[in-house]
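Q: Okay, next protein. This is Ferredoxin from Chitinilyticum piscinae. I've checked the sequence twice, so it should be correct. Can you predict the 3D structure?
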Amino acid sequence: AFVVTDACVRCKYTDCVAVCPVDCFREGPNFLAIDPDECIDCSLCVAECPVDAIFPGDEVPEQYRDYIVLNAELAKSWPPITERKAPPDDHAEWASVNHKIKLIER
Ligand code: SF4
Ligand code: F3S
């Protein structure tokens, strides 16, 4: 399955959700997760993300491997999101910040 990683935290541009043919994105307060049981590995979402937050599971950068289990865990409790929406007001301030995993709200 594909995995949403660090760059998405507090940016949450949501361009990705509109292209997913199986609607497997799940929405939290300041991050999105992909449900690995639903993702069909089509890769369409990758190019949509303006901050390159999405990777195939076997290509997730070493420092962001924790996001693989995190996507699976969060996707279980978060609702689906299938339509694009406006990002947080302060998204630009967070776009180039790294290691935001502790900032994810449940
Ligand atoms: Fe959806 Fe395809 Fe992205 Fe998986 S790889 S989350 S199926 S758009
Ligand atoms: Fe996040 Fe990129 Fe989608 S910032 S919401 S993975 S378009």
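A: Here is a summary of the prediction. The CA atoms of residues 21 and 42 lie 8 Å apart. Residues 4, 8, 11-16, 32, 48-49, 51, 53-54 surround FE3-S4 cluster (ligand 2) (CB under 6 Å).
Q: Noted. On to the next one.
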